[in-house]
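User: Show me sequence and structure for the first protein, then do the same for the second.

Assistant: Starting with the first protein.
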Amino acid sequence: GLTELTVSLRNKKGGKSPLDFTGVFDFQYYTIPNVNNIRLMNATTWEKSPFANYISAPMCKTCAPRTENAPEGRSVGQCMPRALEISPSNIKETMYPIGADCPVWSILVNGTNFINSDPLECQYALANRSFSASTKATWISSTVVECAIPQQAQGAWKGQNVYLKVTLDGIVYTQQMFQVDFYPQPTVVALTVNQANSQFRQASFEGFGVDWRESENVLKKLFGVSQVHREVPLNMALRDKLEKVPQYFRRAPTKGGTPLALYVADGCSSCNTARQLDKWKDSILLKFSHCPAPHSATSHAYLDDCTCEDGTIVPLTKVPVGDSNPSRTGTKTGGYNDRIVWKLEFATPVMQQSEAGEYLVCLAINGLHFVPLEEEAMNLQAATPTIQSLHRVGFSFYPNPILTSLGFTSGPIEIETPYTLDVLGQKFLTNVISGPRYPHMVQVYFGGLDTAGVSVPFSFRRANPMNVTVPSPSRLDVVVPSMTQTFTENFKVNISISFNGYDFTTLELGVSEFLLYGIPRVESIFPRFGHTDFGTVITIFGANFQNSPGRTKCKYESDGGRESLLVPADYISSTEMRCIIVARLKGPNDEFPQIVERMSVKFSADGTESTRVANPSLFKSLLVTAGEFRMLEDVPSLNISATALPIEGGVLFPVTIAQRSIAEVSANCDEACGRAMCLDFL
């Protein structure tokens, strides 16, 4: 209990000493306290989670704060602790930080005989009390004290048993020791290399974000195909392979369910007493904490100002898979040889569309202590690549985009001059903070269904992302990729858009469909002249014509293009199309019809109004000159205006025949159309 200590200090002569502590002081005699159990806490309350009974915490580190306007990330050289490798002969400091950026956490200690004294503190140390760290204890009652977790762990704790004791005076400690499992907080591995013969010959990019390895199955399901193929060139040896985008996009729609891959380096692959990450499979959690980006942000440095206090939590979807094979994980990278790379898999949570925005990503290995996820940045210029800096990791959620219509609905399979298609919709992603670790690539796929009995040399094709722009949330412009194929029949594809390589806009009949057609070869026309007072049926000869009512057109233009007329082209066969040219063309201002003696006849594989209005440059590029046509009052050949007559008779049907004799026609055949064709026609 509390007693009084009287002190009287005199010199040999009985006089007062200059060091006179004479007086009465309170002195506490105490019973050494006992510790019965310990339990994890957060900053203010008891943890209710079942994980709180397993006493563990990440090793915390201390880094110099990033100064204003400094580059994103924190230098590893400014972060302590670093890992210590302990062996019977020596203690060696390795080259990488193992601590987490921790807030204030506590451990609740239950026992007896605790008193409220100034020296009350908690000590964390190895079994032999070496490598200790003490923290101030808070007295709650005679049976409860609260011990803060060290803000800077000892590097030697990595993989070792650490014990907690309590002292009332800083000298005598409780006899009971309770183990606290301090684990190295894993960091995101962005690059792993393999060292062979002192040369770094192989590299494997890992990271964090949407799992692009799952994109193949999504595309197969989306477009209903059984095989996937590369874009270009079409190589039979590669027909069953998809050209995936090997990047982890850190964004997903709010609808949830997007698979995430997280590759982390665990610093205890060779620690005998440490639990590897697969043993934490029931407690590993990921949290997304809202972290609004400033309007002027050009990097992700703003993540340093956010915390993991609140957010949306998701669990693992699969058991962690580790790989310590040096040929892949690069366990020699940076001069240390005791790390193993693990793949952790999650799925994004379902969120309200109003919650779209930027988020800080936090990771809790023990299910309780969430700390900002940090990514390693390597110095690859050094003779031995090492970790140079650490960067917090962010993630973006965006509203679910919708494709509502296409600017025009058909286009050529292949054309020398590329053409742009306007894709209209809602909530297209426009404002993106991109960077080396935050790639941004809008992917537009043109997909076709498998066709029974027809060998289609592509199932879907991705447009070059460099040719995709998003000028507004309601419009996306894409240069249509070449759709080379081996047959000439028309076929439809569906267009789908993804802003993260996995989540695509839905396909809808009449909304996302786009017709692709081949461009026929145009060779000649017949006849090449007609009477000015009567319409003339013109046949266009060529190859690969298609039966597309309403789409194929003939265009007549006078010299210089001053007068023109667009008329339907009727399908006769794959080698013939037929158009009717009127007797006279109207002038540019709809004045009285004028006689045009000489005009150009052009054929268009797509003269639909949607193409002409939405993409006039495409319409112009599709016009192919078939030949020249002349209108004369004195026609030097037979010109029959009707192409068919009713067989039942009795119907008045005008037929105009040029007033020339057969002899006169024959005499002019060579000049007009060639004798053989003229005689056959006759």
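Switching to the second protein now.
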Amino acid sequence: GTERQGLTSSNSCHPTRSVMDSVVDINEGKAGVGGKVQVKDLRVVIATACFHVVDGVTITLRKIIRRLKARGAKVLVLTAPPPGGVAEPLTVHVESVPLLSCCVGQGDYHMGVKAGEEALLAMEKFQPHVVHCTTPDFACYAIGVWAREHNIPVMGTWHSNIHDYALHWGTISTVIRPLIVLYIQHFYYALGTTYVPSEIMRKKMIKEGFESKAHGNKLEVWGRGVDCDKFNPNKRDEAWRTRMGFSPDDVVVLWVGRCVVEKRPDVYIQVMRNLTKLYPQKVRGVVCGRGDFYKKMTSIPNVQGVGWLTAEELPRVYASCDILCFPSRVETFGNVTLEGMASGLPVIAADCCSSHLVESGHNGYAIKGMDFSGYQEAIVTLMEDKKLRQQMGINGRKRAVRDFEVDAVMDQMVEHYIEVANNPPFKPKAFILNVILFPIAMLLWWPYMGIYQAGRLGPKEWVGILMFVFVMVVYLYGGDEQNEGPTDYSWIIGVCLATGAQLSGALAKVLFKSYWQYKVRWKQLAISAVSYVCIIIINPIMGLSAYSFAAQSLLAPLSILNLVWNAVLASLILKEKLSKANMVAYLLICSGCCMTSYFGIHEHKSFTYDELMGLFLEPMFLVFLVVEAIVATVGANIAWVGEKQYPPWVVRIAYGCLGGMLGGNQFLSKSLSEMISTALKTDVAIILRPGSLMLIAGTVFVLISGLRMLQKGLKFYTAMSLVPIYQGFFTITMVASALVFFKEYEQFTANMAQAYTFALLLIFGGISQLQPPETDVELETRKQGDHMA
């Protein structure tokens, strides 16, 4: 949800002391002493990660707090500080670090790492009856430990499927997700009772092991509520629609929420692209929210963005649209769905998250599976039947008013607080916590902090570190002699030619893009001419010539330099901003390329035509082809089926793997170079032999098919997310085919192999750090004191 609560930030830069003093003045007496705790005497500590960020978690917590205060209870919030460190009234900050943007899709989120002295002192003075943990971070873990040591009951609420977010983090999720699940399981085992948003979610969590009879914890259902007076069909504003350029007959499809990968903006993008082509005069779109995909979503014809909205503006936008599209598959309840229902909109949402709210054919459609076609069909059905659309909106409104009125739902949580406060604190198995939870936390903590601290280093620091690493590796591994006899430096020519080939290719791509920046015809023609000369003549000539001077395994990693050249030229010619994170990534890539050039095979071996043909029949090479065929078949199947059956990150990897693997069979290009060299030295007729013709055809096929798969993938995914995967698999295949086909592994010594492998890890480490460009988030949303506006 994106409802904005109108809470004013304190103007004090260090408010914690005065906040705690005022808390002590108001609340005297020890927690839990005397008879039964009543609502008017209740004191609750709420520990959460990011109280300043607008999402479903903070909206729900603010509703709880308002209801607690309305009934006379006292609340203290422990949270990570907002940008600038200014605290809201009655909040105390814990120690925290920003979450990496790759984890959550935006940089506003923090993770609590320690409770901190101020937070512990604030709890001592506040003397709570109940501690409520909402986020399984390290600060909440420490706060729970403090509460148990002081015999104070601890309870939890489940707001986010954090372990499911990891499914969108690429291949690393296969390693890190099991650790995250294990840590979160034991975090909630220690809380006794955790309240989950719906019965569907409770069953899912039990199935995934978050309730354990051995530990004695239990999961109970506590739903969510909506202010049906605020979110109301009566808020529909025809004047607003007119200002947005919508006619009375236009059907406006609304998106509300963060525009990040786990919310499935790709579904909205694909559906709206299709619908604006099919119904250009009828369908319109509005995107309310921000995130990495905001710019792409609002670039679709007939789709407009309104960014984040205030608490007064958001209900008007809901009521003034016609259909709510909410394809997220990681929701625990669906506040956005409920707000849309209360506003009188038919809702089209994922069945796995919203089937407890949306009854297909009654108040919207709950879409099964991951394919966008179901969403498109549902929108078309509602778009073409106005009466059905209106009736579904009425049905959803009735359900929201009947079952989800906010005060009644929040009163249920108040009663849960009273129940927990008046019962003995839950005693978790300390042995399990200490033996399992703490080591798992450390396994997650230390790598994360290492990545976080590395991300804080500037490019200058990275240059110094990489120079030091390079010198140390040269010192340790540089003593091996690669061959006997006089040293041959022709490999340097090959490296220079390969680097030049990558530079010319990147220059052509950048010039193609700069073509559209000029309006003068002769300038456009000049740029086109230079671009085509670079890509058609200079690039292939230099690339093929490089194979005549150096081994393929030496040249293979240099293909990654295409990414670096592209970034440098784009910043110089197109004036595109180069982010700090990407500068570090490119430094890692360049360092790895330099090391592979230094430690690779410097001896170049030439082959005759007969020797080349014989290499194609070597058993090891045939095994290599079989492995490639199996991987290609699996990748092609995933790419063909697409997101109907597989998560987006799996399909993206399939496209990158298939394209990079096909294009990376550069042993054909080197073989072609050797064949041409042999023909020019001995007999030109060699070029017309069947083997030569098949070699030429194979070289052209792998190049074109690899680029075709990349082009196909770019239809669905951004270049920054797909091209690094393509380049990574391109390099892996290129290195592997060189080692197997030309038997270059025979020339590697143990030290050379170790250093070469380390250099490749540097390159792939750089690729993994590449991030998409930041979205144009409005500056005012970043200003301190206005983070809730």
